[in-house]
Amino acid sequence: MDKLTNKEEEIMHVLWKLEKAFVKDVLAEIEGEKPHYNTLSTIIRNLEDKGYVAHNAYGKTHQYYPIVEKEDYRKGFMTAAIDNYFNNSYKNVVSFFAKEEKISVEDLKEIISIIEKEK
């Protein structure tokens, strides 16, 4: 899977949410500064070239839909981030969030409980 730019990732989140959409539908969902219609259309076509999106043609207009599941993308993204930033160590990931105070003791206890139930 090719790496996505931040803007491509933003568009994918919209497509995952909408499931099927024309460019105008995606444009309507974008918050903040909106790209020009033609720019957005190009980004979506790039996503199609990268294998993330496909389309149904209705005359000259296309309705796009994701062909990569959000969960599959998330797994790949997290695996790459853990490999690149945490030396492939989940312990390093958890300790990072603990040090940054992004995860509470209660959350850690819940994670331990989930792990113990899985064994």
TrEMBL record:
The entry's keywords: DNA-binding, Transcription, Transcription regulation
Is Transit peptide a UniProt keyword of this protein?
Answer: no
- Give a GO molecular function annotation for the protein: DNA binding
| BP GO terms, sorted | negative regulation of DNA-templated transcription
Q: Does the keyword Transcription regulation apply?
A: yes
Q: State the family named in the UniProt similarity comment for this chain.
A: Belongs to the BlaI transcriptional regulatory family.
Q: What protein name does the entry list?
A: BlaI/MecI/CopY family transcriptional regulator
